[in-house]
Amino acid sequence: SFLVTSQEQLFKQIGEKMAVPLLTKKIIKKRVKRFIRPQSDRRICVKQSWRRPKGIDSRVRRKFKGVTLMPNIGYGSDKKTRHYLPNGFKKFLVHNVKDLELLMMHNRTYCAEIAHNVSTRKRKDIVERAAQLDIVVTNKLARLRSQEDE
């Protein structure tokens, strides 16, 4: 009772050969949790996005025990693995087929991500060209569903 749709057939055609990432080093993030702004849990007007505390009595600025941690240079990721996705590639935003040509020689370092404002028809062209150039596309299955229904 398993139906094979055109989306799955397309995935099989594309998935046959894929570029292998050049990165062999394990990606380790020193900190995954975001730094939240102190008092953001108590006041609605204080948003969660980090702002450095500048008050003269601020416990966070004075680095008291048990208070919110402040971001500093020590939390930075390893230079060799910085900006890499879990799949081992760096992200490159693609708006049209011509943008893929830039990745032709760098298909083992960068993967393509199709921009959100690209139409369904152009997406299909980009995915097909990426398969020819052996470029990994992270969101290749996005917006293919709507075309099948028509």
UniProtKB/TrEMBL annotation:
Protein keywords: Ribonucleoprotein, Ribosomal protein
InterPro entries linked to this entry: Ribosomal_eL32, Ribosomal_eL32_sf
Record carries keyword Ribosomal protein: yes
GO molecular function annotation: structural constituent of ribosome
GO annotation, biological process: translation
Gene Ontology cellular component annotations, sorted alphabetically: cytosolic large ribosomal subunit
Pfam families, A to Z: Ribosomal_L32e (PF01655)
Family that this chain belongs to: Belongs to the eukaryotic ribosomal protein eL32 family.
Protein name: 60S ribosomal protein L32-1, variant 2
Organism of provenance: Pisum sativum
